[in-house]
């Protein structure tokens, strides 16, 4: 729909949703909405900061690699491998957040859903209780342990329903870049455009 003159902001409007932060020990979230199925590459930015770039060879809807679109990351970094990176929205501490799923945790949730039902249902869904356990000194030395016995069907309360009243699809929260946009961002990164504005580039990549 076209905007009137007074409605136009004159620039793209960001609708950045805060990401959930996993903590050691007990975690609790309520999943809501649809799931974004994607794979991402992790590229080095300023100060070795990891920046995610979606793999365009992967079809979100069919959950398959079809190589129909030009994937410039493969062109620029042929040895770089993409990784599983599904995401969904969640309610945590009275706030709507993006929940970047961990693959093994997601597999446990799917198994539990066979008995408990769809966790995203507003009437019969259930809260996700899990533990994050360190298993070694490295950042990747962690395990995620679902605690399904704590989960009971619970309808969302009024404040939670208000939070999701205008819930956006994950395709809008994490829009898929076009091949041209991907190439432009990669060129900016390679040319060192992130030296003074790395946060802006990271938002564009994500």
Could you please describe the fold and organization of this structure?
The structure is a single chain. This protein is of the alpha+beta class and 206 residues long. Among the domains are: 17-33 and 101-178, no CATH class; 38-85, no CATH class. The chain is 26% helix and 26% strand. The protein has helices at residues 72-76, 103-116, 158-163, 170-173, 179-190, 194-205, and strands spanning 25-36, 39-44, 50-54, 58-59, 64-65, 83-84, 87-92, 95-100, 128-134, 142-146. A 5-stranded antiparallel β-sheet has the order 8-7-1-9-10. Strands 3-2-6 form a 3-stranded antiparallel β-sheet. A two-stranded antiparallel ribbon has the order 4-5.
Question: What is the topological layout?
Answer:
Elements: E1 25-36, E2 39-44, E3 50-54, E4 58-59, E5 64-65, H1 72-76, E6 83-84, E7 87-92, E8 95-100, H2 103-116, E9 128-134, E10 142-146, H3 158-163, H4 170-173, H5 179-190, H6 194-205
Antiparallel strand pairs: 1-7, 1-9, 2-3, 2-6, 4-5, 7-8, 9-10
Number of strands: 10
Assembly level: single chain
Q: How many whole angstroms does the radius of gyration measure?
A: 19 Å
Shape: globular
Q: Strand fraction band? A: 25-35%
Number of helices: 6
Distance between the termini: 26 Å
Instruction: Provide mean pLDDT, rounded.
Output: 87
Structural class label: alpha+beta
Low-confidence region ranges: 1-14, 194-202
What are the secondary-structure elements, in order, as H or E? EEEEEHEEEHEEHHHH
Helix content: 25-40%
Strand order of the largest sheet: 8-7-1-9-10
Largest pleated sheet: 5 strands, antiparallel
